[in-house]
Design brief:
The structure is a single chain. The protein is mainly alpha-helical and 268 residues long. The chain has a single domain (2-263), classed as ADP-ribosylglycohydrolase fold, CATH 1.10.4080.10. Helix content is 62%, strand content 0%. The chain is built from 15 helices and no strands. Helix 7 (117-129) packs antiparallel against helix 8, helix 8 runs antiparallel to helix 9 (157-168) and helix 11 (193-201) crosses helix 13. The longest helix is centred in the N-terminal third of the chain and has 18 residues, at 57-74. The chain is globular and about 45 Å long.
């Protein structure tokens, strides 16, 4: 979760192609802030912990709906997309066929909480389908959660890459240097998740992964949130960056982060 939130915060000033497509930038500036990506990441994590690791898919879906709407009301101006904002405020809990990258940016907790890939994929799918029930929206959430699960269980990058390509059929053959010149602001899973995975695969450490993601341009906060969620599981996060993350979110979000650390048995 820290990785997703840090990616969101660090990437936030460069969204909508506002950066220079470079890895050479100051990590934290006055323009850095958490956005809807962090708020919904926390909301999904809280829902999954509330249900517990033995919960059924329908229980997860109900908890995610309830939690996302509660956190959405708490932070109504966090930068939600148009259709998601309508869903947050509406009375109907029906999904709306989205294949947007929101399903992938909010799913990171699912990669940490379960003991098997099957359980991880079930939880990721359940967290997505409440809004992003398009096959690409579901695929983006599952692929991200699976990469996190495999990384925290010491799988190598080639093993992770092979699994993602075989299971989800994403094209991971392009390098960042090949992607960067033509990449632009796009909010679909199918044009965000493969790029985020590539940014992780080419990284030498957590910070490098975030810099890779931001250097692509486009929807940088979400791209870096997805990349950061995988990079945290593979590289871990330096203590100073973890502390910076806690400092830059609100008190209620810090409480969920603390609860999450306790839930997975990690020292805060």
């Amino acid at each position: 979760m820290y990785g997703a939130i840090l990616g969101d915060i660090i990437g936030s000033p460069f969204e909508f192609d506002m950066g220079d497509k470079t890895k050479d930038f100051e990590l934290f500036t006055t323009g850095c802030t958490f956005t809807d990506d962090s708020v919904m990441t926390v909301a999904v994590a809280e829902a999954l912990m509330t249900v517990g690791t033995n919960g059924e898919a329908l229980d997860i879906e109900k908890a995610v709906i309830r939690s996302m709407r509660e956190w959405g009301r708490r932070y109504p101006h966090a930068g939600y997309g148009g259709r998601f904002r309508i869903w947050l405020k509406g009375n109907s809990s029906k999904p709306y066929g989205s294949y947007g990258n929101g399903s992938a940016m909010r799913v990171s907790a699912a990669g940490w909480l379960y003991d098997t890939l099957e359980e991880t994929r079930k939880a990721a799918r359940a967290s997505a389908v409440v809004t992003h029930n398009h096959p690409e929206g579901i695929k983006g959430a599952e692929a991200t959660a699976c990469a996190i699960f495999m990384a925290r269980n010491k799988a190598g990058k080639e093993e992770i890459k092979s699994y993602i390509q075989n299971e989800f059929h994403y094209n991971l053959s392009r390098s960042l240097d090949e992607i960067r010149p033509f990449y632009h602001h796009v909010e679909s899973c199918q044009q965000t998740v493969p790029e985020a995975i590539t940014a992780f695969l080419e990284a030498k450490d957590f910070e490098d992964a975030i810099r890779n993601a931001v250097s692509l341009g486009g929807d940088t906060d979400t791209l870096a949130a997805i990349t950061g969620s995988m990079a945290e599981a593979y590289f871990d996060i330096p203590a100073n960056l973890r502390a910076e993350c806690r400092k830059r979110v609100s008190e209620d979000m810090r409480k969920v982060l603390q609860k999450f650390d306790e839930f997975i048995g990690r020292q805060a």
